[in-house]
Amino acid sequence: MAGQQDFIKGWPSREYLEYPELKDALKESYMSAIDELAGSALNYGTTEEGAFMMGHPTFLNALAAVLGRYYKREVDPATLFTTSGGSMGTDIACRVHANAGDVAVSEAPTYYLAHQMFRERGLELREVPIEEDGMDVDALEKLCIELKGAVKIVYTVPVHHNPTGVTMSDAKRAQLCHLAKVHNFVVIADEAYGLLNFGATEVLPLHYHDDPQDPHVISVGTFSKLIGPGVKVGWCQAHTVLLTPMSGIGFINSGNNPVIFSSVGLAKFVGDGGLEAHIDFISKQIGNKARVMADELRAVGLEFMQPEGGYFIWVKSKGKMTGRSGKGMTLDPPDQFENYMRLCFAWLSEDQIKQGIQFLAQE
């Protein structure tokens, strides 16, 4: 029976969090951390390796290895910094690489909660449109020239964009990195959905388009959409000149890296193939739900871009609304996308998705 459903939550379904294979693998991984690494995982560091400011070496090495398998290239653990989820990475990058009064630029529309982080750091917010192949970098260039060096942060969601689902083209990635060097700003690439793909992909983190001799890109990753948001473990990938000052801010200098134990608890799971098996499982499951939603949307006559990964479909309403309205996902005017819907397909069951989309067809 058709009826309104909760398409607002950008949450994983409980069925993925209670998946028996995941629970068994995590139990084994956390017990391994306690049995074998308690002396370092429960401490600030070790005498031999010093304080774990960037993160615990065991986890950083496991993370580097698994990312290397996905990206088909070697990942240097020194280019990784562990965080308590992706939002902490974005917030610390903004805190370190900009000052109050500087300008932060995002896409319109964008992940609107990033605006709050930038405002709380005292930044002035501006935006440029997003196109079918990613951020309008020509508009960004004009804005940088107009503001004469005030732009210090450019925030982008370059893969499976939230909310539109767009993935930035390689040509635009190269152009964006070039502009970052010319106008001296840091790019924060929010890649929360970068490993959640519904088919084969050759898309790499924006970090790999950066110039190692003059780096300006921080790629932000997280396990929140892959394992579950409650684990609160993420990472930043960037060249060390960008990461080192992030690991030296006050609360880390005082208390050390905030996810030493929680990350080590995942190290065996990440390093021994458990993570890859789980990503394969949830990518298939969530991909099936995306296809169900897409089929239902077409059946009620709505147009949208077919998602290739991530959590959302972005669709223009023909009158009736459900899910999260696009209102507030832009700055000027904030209601520019008020008649668009961001629909999450990860949270609900397939039957609930069908019922919720059929609700749109009711008179």
Structure description:
This protein has helices spanning 14-17, 20-41, 57-71, 86-97, 113-120, 137-147, 170-183, 240-243, 250-255, 260-271, 274-299, 350-359, and strands at residues 45-46, 50-51, 80-83, 103-108, 124-131, 134-135, 151-156, 186-190, 217-222, 234-237, 312-316, 324-325, 340-344. It is of the alpha/beta class and 363 residues long. The strands form 3 sheets. It has an 8-stranded mixed sheet with strand order 3-10-9-8-7-4-5-6, with helices on both faces. Helix 2 packs across helix 10, helix 3 (57-71) packs across helix 10 (260-271) and helix 6 (137-147) packs parallel to helix 7 (170-183). It starts with 13 loop residues before the first helix and ends with a helix.
